From TrEMBL:
<feature type="domain" description="Ribosomal RNA-processing protein 14 N-terminal">
    <location>
        <begin position="9"/>
        <end position="70"/>
    </location>
</feature>
<feature type="region of interest" description="Disordered">
    <location>
        <begin position="127"/>
        <end position="180"/>
    </location>
</feature>
<dbReference type="InterPro" id="IPR029190">
    <property type="entry name" value="Rrp14/SURF6_C"/>
</dbReference>
<feature type="region of interest" description="Disordered">
    <location>
        <begin position="59"/>
        <end position="112"/>
    </location>
</feature>
<dbReference type="GO" id="GO:0005730">
    <property type="term" value="C:nucleolus"/>
</dbReference>
<feature type="compositionally biased region" description="Polar residues">
    <location>
        <begin position="99"/>
        <end position="110"/>
    </location>
</feature>
<dbReference type="InterPro" id="IPR007019">
    <property type="entry name" value="SURF6"/>
</dbReference>
<feature type="compositionally biased region" description="Polar residues">
    <location>
        <begin position="72"/>
        <end position="82"/>
    </location>
</feature>
<protein>
    <recommendedName>
        <fullName>Surfeit locus protein 6</fullName>
    </recommendedName>
</protein>
<feature type="compositionally biased region" description="Basic and acidic residues">
    <location>
        <begin position="85"/>
        <end position="95"/>
    </location>
</feature>
<dbReference type="GO" id="GO:0003677">
    <property type="term" value="F:DNA binding"/>
</dbReference>
<dbReference type="GO" id="GO:0042274">
    <property type="term" value="P:ribosomal small subunit biogenesis"/>
</dbReference>
<feature type="domain" description="Ribosomal RNA-processing protein 14/surfeit locus protein 6 C-terminal">
    <location>
        <begin position="126"/>
        <end position="327"/>
    </location>
</feature>
<keyword id="KW-0539">Nucleus</keyword>
<feature type="compositionally biased region" description="Basic and acidic residues">
    <location>
        <begin position="59"/>
        <end position="71"/>
    </location>
</feature>
<dbReference type="GO" id="GO:0042273">
    <property type="term" value="P:ribosomal large subunit biogenesis"/>
</dbReference>
<feature type="compositionally biased region" description="Basic and acidic residues">
    <location>
        <begin position="308"/>
        <end position="326"/>
    </location>
</feature>
Length: 349
């Protein structure tokens, strides 16, 4: 194959692919450079509105240009424009980089020195503004004072421990024994003194009378007698007190015993009249209570009888219903198919 023929075939293929590319819309074939739309950051309200209006106008203009036949640009034209623009920008960047490298190589040392000097000055200004030196000095003094205080406490603690240990080691064993004996002797003397004092003290909790009665501070609780028994005793006591021979002695003895009992907090039931009234009152109370109890029992019995009656009625009703169901079932079995139905006598009769 000759070179001329090869070039012609390549040219034909190129034209074919160019036509294929022209058939594809530019927005699907050429990738757009997505630029960050940062126009709304840091803008005022009027500036944002102006930017939006400009964007709308640009979109309208692009649409008109796209529909105008004179300004129509195919996909190949757009590709060619982009390639030319990119080549121009690359050439400018290469020129700028060459010039910049020369300048940087000449002024790099001075630039670093200036930056370092500016940084140092800025740091000094900030330190002076917040009083960093004074704060550091104060913190250093506080730290030194704290360390010195800890050292002093440690020295004083060691000194006190040493003194205590020396005191315990130098004290002889005999001194310990003497102190223990003195302590024990003092305790014995105190015990003997307390015992002697107790022997010489009086006991006021127990009082003995000449009549044979004894009242103790800790008296035993006796079971309370019934009012009937107390009435019998009071009546008998009244009869003894009315005796002409020994009545006065009995009255005096009873008076003393009653006074002592009342002084110890006990109640004395020696009045027959009051006891009779109390017995009568308790009797009436018992009668009333028994009457109420009888009424309550009668009410309970009536409720029980009513419930039993209801139960018996329910049982009887269920039995009747069961019997009726059985009879209906039996009659249903006796019915014959046909128009005459069930007959009690024979059919031919």
């Amino acid at each position: 194959m000759d070179d001329a023929e090869l070039q012609s075939r390549v040219h034909e293929h190129r034209l074919f692919f160019d036509k294929l590319v022209d058939l594809i819309p530019a927005k699907f074939y050429i990738s757009k450079d997505e630029e960050e739309n940062t126009w709304h950051y840091g803008m005022s309200k009027a500036q944002r509105a102006a930017a939006k209006q400009a964007t709308r106008e640009n979109l309208k203009k692009a649409k008109r240009d796209r529909l105008d036949p004179d300004k129509f640009t195919s996909t190949l034209d757009l590709l060619q424009q982009r390639s030319e623009a990119s080549s121009k920008t690359e050439a400018k960047a290469a020129d700028a980089s060459e010039n910049g490298n020369a300048q940087v190589q000449g002024n790099r040392a001075t630039t670093y020195e200036e930056l370092r000097e500016r940084l140092r000055k800025r740091m000094e200004e900030l330190r002076a503004k917040r009083n960093a030196d004074a704060a550091a000095a104060t913190a250093r003094k506080a730290r030194n004072w704290k360390d010195e205080k800890k050292k002093q406490n440690a020295r004083s603690q060691k000194r006190s421990i040493g003194v205590a240990a020396q005191h315990t080691t130098t004290q002889p064993a005999e001194t310990h024994k003497k102190q223990k004996l003195a302590h024990v002797g003092g305790m014995a003397e105190n015990v003997e003194k307390e015992i002697g004092d107790k022997n010489n003290t009086f006991e006021f909790g127990r009082v003995k009378m000449g009549l044979g009665s004894e009242v103790n501070g800790q008296s035993k609780k006796r079971r309370r007698e019934s009012k009937e028994k107390l009435l019998v005793k009071a009546t008998k006591l009244q009869q003894q007190m009315q005796d002409p021979e020994n009545g006065e002695d009995v009255r005096l003895k009873h008076t003393w015993n009653a006074a002592l009992s009342r002084s110890s907090g006990e109640k004395v039931y020696d009045d027959p009249g009051l006891l009779k009234q109390s017995v009568k009152r308790e009797k009436l109370k018992r009668q009333k209570s028994s009457k109420k109890w009888g009424q309550r029992k009668e009410t309970v019995n009536q409720l029980i009888d009513a419930k039993q009656q209801t139960r018996q009625e329910h049982i009887k009703e269920r039995k009747q219903q069961k019997l009726e169901r059985k009879m209906a079932k039996r009659e249903k079995k006796l019915l014959r198919p046909g128009f005459e139905g069930r007959r009690e006598t024979f059919i031919n009769e």
